[in-house]
Amino acid sequence: MDYQAILNEIAAEVEPLLEKGKVADYIPALASVEKKQFAMSITLFNGMQYSVGVADTLFSIQSISKVFSFTLALKFYSKDLYKRVGREPSGNPFNSLVQLEYERGKPRNPFINAGAIVVADALINHYGNKETAFEEVQKFIQEVSCNNSIASNPVVAASEMEHGHRNLALANLMKSFGNLDNEVQDVVETYFKLCALEMSTKTLSRSMLYLANHGIDPLCAKQFISPNQAKRINAVMLTCGHYDASGDFAFHVGLPGKSGVGGGIVALIPKVMGIAVFSPGLNAQGNSLVGTKALELFTTKTGLSIF
Ligand code: GLU
User: N or C, which terminus of the chain has less Cβ within 10 Å?
Assistant: First the structure.
């Protein structure tokens, strides 16, 4: 298959849509990102990489970081993790407080904010302190993407903290229900530092290979997690990876994926490739508008989806 030609075609087809959507504006550092950008990369199991657009541009991975922190928490806690966080779609916006109150402080899944905050808390417990927890997740991301320069943007992280009232509210609510062991401030700070990690579509598409190959990196043969755990993570990505638009993403794209409000989306085709797209204009549910369309075009043109 001529992947480069397909990516070029997609870039041309989404071009008129680049003005649509709305850049995340809840913090100045994200609100100032130029909207009319597009990049898409794929990494195959043999290491071949194909890209189009601004594929080396670094952007805030935001909620895509939840895939990596969930991976490590599941590795260390196995199914005990589900005592603290569920694995059902929420059907609610990513930062909703209402459901968390009804469900007595247990978040629906690790990909909504409350769930990722619990995961960060579990990782701080495992590693002993917030600094090591952050560094180890960062190290893991560097390892799975084969790029040791991946770093968090301190301006974005600090700005998130300054405007983080809702996430702090979620964390306080969970603390009141006894579902947070560490100090609210420490846990939310760790969560925001992970959201503020910056990557390109090239490195993100590379980082998905372990999930596309039963937990084993097909290029260096390293086993990061068990096949069973990889299966679970893929299932949660498919059912919960796009907040209250997860069903819509599965319907249109047909792949496990995870979005972030920075405009990135990662996805994977089991046994074939890792994929990443970037375009900062978001749709009403907070997912990249052009990114979602590009992925839909990709699975339609290649005939590759999990269905
Ligand atoms: N840092 C963002 C927040 O917690 C992440 C949200 C996202 O990417 O969906 O509000």
Answer: C
196 Cα nearest atom in ligand 1:
1
Q: How confident is the model at residue 244 (pLDDT cuts 50, 70, 90)?
A: confident
**Domain stop point among 144, 177, 195:** 195
160 and 129 both lie in a single domain: yes
Sheet with strand 273-278: strands edge to edge: 49-53, 39-44, 273-278, 264-269, 257-259
> pLDDT (tens digit, 9 = 90+) per residue, 179-236?
999 999 999 999 999 999 999 999 999 999 999 999 999 999 999 999 999 999 999 9
Name the helix (H) or strand (E) containing 266: strand 264-269
Domain range for 11: 3-62+198-300
Q: Is 267 helix (H, G, I), strand (E, B) or coil?
A: strand
Same-domain pairing of 77 and 98: yes
Measuring from atom 4 of ligand 1, which residue has the nearest CA?
A: 113
CA of residue 195 to ligand 1 center, whole Å: 7
Do 262 and 188 fall within a single domain? no
Q: Is 66 marked active-site?
A: yes
Q: Is the pLDDT of residue 93 over 80?
A: no
